[in-house]
């Protein structure tokens, strides 16, 4: 099953997607500039093999819901996310607001 919802953070809209798969759930929250995602995100791949795309993204591990993703500290981020002022350890909601 795939669920989508719109999230309003301080008047800015983000789009959340939850994908239920066998034995795991994929979670993302994004806007037109970047996104945060559950532990399935391969930040190393984005930084190394896809660096030319300049993807703004962060990864939180151990999350099971969209609300968890908003509250969890980011375990890893892309180089482009760092350039936007996003830092490892920053909670998801803070990171998203840096993507405005």
Summarize this structure as a short list of keywords or feature phrases:
alpha+beta; 100 residues; six-stranded mixed sheet; globular; 6 strands; single chain; DUF1805 domain-containing protein
Helix and strand string, N-terminal first? EEEEHEHEHH
Helix-strand makeup class: alpha+beta
Average residue pLDDT: 96
What share of the residues lie within helices? Answer: 10-25%
Share of β-strand residues: 35-45%
* Biggest sheet strand line-up: 1-2-3-4-5-6
Rg (C-alpha, Å): 13 Å
The low-confidence parts are none
Span between termini:
29 Å
Organism: Solibacillus faecavium
Protein name: DUF1805 domain-containing protein
Descriptive notes:
- By secondary structure, this protein is of the alpha+beta class.
- Helices cover 24% and strands 35% of the residues.
- The protein contains 4 helices and 6 strands, in the order ββββαβαβαα.
- It has a 6-stranded mixed sheet.
- This is DUF1805 domain-containing protein.
- InterPro entries: DUF1805, YunC_sf.
Element layout with pairings:
Layout: E1 2-9, E2 12-21, E3 24-30, E4 34-37, H1 43-48, E5 56-59, H2 66-71, E6 76-77, H3 79-83, H4 92-98
Parallel strand pairs: 4-5
Antiparallel strand pairs: 1-2, 2-3, 3-4, 5-6
